[in-house]
Sequence to fold (447 residues):
Amino acid sequence: MKPKRPGGANAVGGGCLMAFSLPFIGFGGAAMAASIVPSIPGAGYASWANVIIPAIFGLIFTGVGLVMFIAGLRAMRTARGGVALVAEAPPWDANPLFPKFKQVRGRRGFRLSPGASALAKAIGLSIAALIWNGISWGALFFVVRDREFIGMICVGIFGLIGLLILYAAGHAILGYILVGDSRVEISRDPVSPGESLRVFIFQKGSFPIEKLTLRLLCQEEARYRQGTDTVTAKNLVHEETIVEREGLRADSGAPIMDADVAIPADAMHSFKSSNNGVRWLLELSLVIPGRPDVKDTFEFRVIPEVKSSWRV
Amino acid sequence: MEGLTLSIRLDGGERRYTPGAFVGGGVVVRHFEAWQCKYMDVTLGWRTEGRGDEDCQAAVGVRLAGGGEEMSPQNERKFRLKVPQMPWTYHGVLIKIHWVVGVYARGMRGKEVSEEIPIVIHPNPAGIQLPTASL
Fold:
């Protein structure tokens, strides 16, 4: 089968999308009409809720339907008349395929954002633990009260999973309170293949660090649909331990260590399209005695521009 | 469109380009009679292959003919396109990025006819394997 034209559109797909949008527009329009016209002539409106709720639903359905209709119409027009052509592609810094970061200046360089902050982890896991345990332990109460033994076993498994989530949430909260966020700064952003950058690591609080490991990773990410789910597959194409050091100490005022990181000369640049991507990451692991350990990734960008000569 | 054949001829014939270079060549169009062209575009486009759902884009392109232009049964149209800076041709584990020079033409009636040639876009193009089969 010949693959579709890059950037091209499918006229049949566009037509299907337009047809699919019609029930949305019809249903939404009917709901809006129902909100305006009382169901029993002369009866008037029962309440404002009878007007507002159908009107909101009608608006949402009509809006979604119109967006689909316009997208379908555009696809059909594009398929008939060819794609919109660009004489010259934008430079890498204006190209939507190059990841966009908000550059934040730190103490020694550009501050990188963590994959998930300690606070976000603590809040996310706490909410998950609250919902999961609320439902599963609530259900467990009723099956125990009614002495349904099979129900007790089934719901009990969910209750045990809830305890594990609760443990993870507690660990994350302790991590936030006792350790907090690690901060990684780099001397230049973005960086070219073959270039080096200096990495500075800061850690809040004041405590001993048994072991620190910093790794340079290049990760491919591919997103695909599997039935009704969307799955993201990940694969490391470059793994390199930059530094592994023991007997350090966190000190809020100063970087706990710094190191040089060399980007391989034959490296692929950072890239992000709708379903596929190549990401460059610094992975920081801290083993802290008596406190939760830290393991987080910090993304930085490698540009599609070679400044040094190729060494491949 | 029945009977319409397109073929791409690339200057140099190397099919390996560095970002910022120019891809030049010609499109040879053959048909058994004169015909009216709705559009004939030549593009540099990329598409992904691998585990993820396919992404593709025509990065640059130029319209060689169109708007009902009368075309003789055999002619050649020249083109010259600037190679984009990114993405580079990439042969990873989960993801591959392929580039093609493609010509896509349609008469006032009938379906689109196309022809594609795989190329490599990389700062070190000699180090990248050139795809042989049509992608």
